[in-house]
Amino acid sequence: MKLLKSTRKTEPEYIAVTPASKKYAIRNPFSEDLKINGHKQDIKIFEDEEGFTFIEYKNKKYLAEIIEKNQNKYTVLLNGLSYTFTIESPISYRRRKYLEKFKQTNKLEIVTAPMPGKILELLVEENTKVKEGEAIIILEAMKMQNEIIAVVAGKVRKIHVKAGDSVTKDEALMEIER
Amino acid sequence: MKIKSLLIANRGEIAVRITETAKKLGIKTYGIKTAKEPNALYLRLVDDVIDFSQSFDEIPEFLDIERIIDAIRQCKADAVHPGYGFLAENPYFARRCEEEKIIFIGPPASAIYKMGNKTIAKQIAQKHNVPLLQGSQGNVKNPKEAADIAAKIGYPVILKAAAGGGGRGMRIVEKPSNMEKMFKMAANESEKAFNDSSLFIEKYVRNPKHIEFQIMGDRFGNYIHLGERECSIQRKHQKLIEESPSSALDEKLREEMGRASISIARAVNYNSAGTVEFLLDADRNFFFMEMNTRIQVEHPVTEMVSGIDLIEWQIRIADGQKLTIHQNDVKLSGWAIECRINAEDVQAGFSPNTGIIEKVSFPKGKNIRIDTGITDYSVITPYFDSMVAKLIVHAETRDKAILNMVLALKKVWIKGIKTTIPFCLAVMDHKKFKKGDFNTSFIEKEMDKLYYNEDNDEMLAAYVAAFDFAAELETDRTAKPDFERGKNISPWVLNKRLKSL
Fold this sequence. Notes:
The structure holds two protein chains of two kinds.
Chain A: E1 2-3, E2 13-17, E3 23-27, E4 35-36, E5 39-40, E6 43-47, E7 53-57, E8 60-70, E9 73-78, E10 81-88, H1 90-100, E11 108-112, E12 117-122, E13 129-130, E14 135-141, E15 144-149, E16 154-159, E17 166-167, E18 172-177
Chain B: E1 5-8, H1 12-24, E2 28-33, H2 41-45, E3 48-51, H3 65-75, E4 79-81, H4 91-99, E5 103-104, H5 109-116, H6 118-127, H7 143-153, E6 157-165, E7 168-173, H8 179-194, E8 199-203, E9 209-217, E10 223-235, E11 238-244, H9 251-267, E12 272-280, E13 286-292, H10 299-306, H11 310-318, E14 335-342, E15 344-345, E16 351-352, E17 355-356, E18 359-361, E19 368-372, E20 379-380, E21 387-395, H12 398-409, E22 413-415, H13 421-428, H14 431-435, H15 442-446, H16 457-477, H17 491-500
Parallel strand pairs in B: 1-2, 1-4, 2-3, 4-5
Antiparallel strand pairs in B: 6-7, 6-8, 9-10, 9-12, 10-11, 11-14, 12-13, 14-21, 15-16, 17-20, 18-22, 19-21
Helix pairs in contact in B: 4-5, 7-8, 12-13
């Protein structure tokens, strides 16, 4: 087992923000003096010989893996579950808060394919009104027919696919106007 | 033994499983290589590989009867083991094997046909006084006819593919207004899955337990049962966790259901391993559902409590040997639980999670069994089902088995894809599951959260992200070339760099 440490001397603060706007202020990430939201924490990161990375916390081992990273946006897999964060510095966090006030909620909801597969059937047409929770597309993947459900109520503005099309993960399928 | 070599017309963990027993019996194994999974684990374990990867057919490899028959003729294998799924319950394939003098490791084609056609199967069960659910006498042609029958027997009803299995082509209809949509979906799905869109309809029992009996018969009319398996933890009719025995049965009911199972098997001159599935209602009335004329995914729990190798007996019986185990010899001891570990994202409605397994490690132990078709760098493709491994534990009591399962699940480490392990842990941690108080609606009705986590998990994950971000910032600030890169660097950063090469 190898303990992972950094040689960095200056110790800054980082703020991890969840999509639900919960924040974790992490001070001194590399030192013994680690504080999270003001509380002292003893967390160690280890890498074993086989290439797994573990967190050790309160005598428990947690399997950890970063599964997505795009600039300051992170998705971390911990004990098999994924958690998404945006990492901010105290200054960029304040700016983000300030900018959020001016942000308008998007009126268009883009329905994307949750998994690669084949479009079996479209249950709605353009300009149909849909209810939240209503099945709108049937996607076949891994030998199963999966209903894709409208996450918002609204009107179908545009359909990008037709029955029989193969789609990749995250491909835009249709747009619903709230 | 007449069987000296066999072809495995399957993939994944069951191909690996069959290989293990074949090796034990000194039988040479052939595996089929497909273009979809050319580096799969099972191909490394079989003695010889038959390459189907060069030509592309409309029919999927493991469903292509004539191509498989051809391959068996060419490699001169004595027998074929179909595993489960694919051609395992295709009577035409079994018949073709009979015609070609290839030993089909499974029951005779006639038994597969009779039990595979649920309408005939129900008639047989009825004739032998095995309790049944009310429903259509035969297939229903259209939503209208289905609605008429449903009106008679009362909602809710269930539409099932006549040629079905594994939960495909099944839809529950709660009210008349849903009939047309559900009928269409079920017919469509069963056409896709089984090449046959015929449906039948029956009364739907709310919240039953799913209890199935493992039976075994030879060609000389000897039959035994190896007790039950409870498979009530299901999502969309797909079994996720199975155990043996079931806490719902006592010796008397076990004997009664075992006897009913054997009578159905005997009625179709069944031989080989088979499973008779029942629904058990809250008052412990049982109803015959169907018979699966193949080895089941969940067979290991029976093997763990009985100590009997079911695949071995499938081969021996196909070889023409007598079943030397009598009902009195069957001693079931302790409790076994199986968790299916699927490449699915439990945080996103169990959507399939394809990708490359970067690294995998399983727990080892006397009472732990792992049946898997994956290893480091295996690819999880969208072409096949999402199961990557089965984790089976055995202990003296159910409580201990659950505890062992929790410990074992926490030692299954898979890097590169998301799996259903957090779901399995959530079930093991559930009060009602622990008490044995559950039925097939457990996931829907009893589970508030479909995955297990602890209070501090999110905080720890936040720390991991911040640690990595900080470490990467640090290296970015080094303006001069760094020839020792990778020395004091986080493994994730290194990983990311390797990936972007």
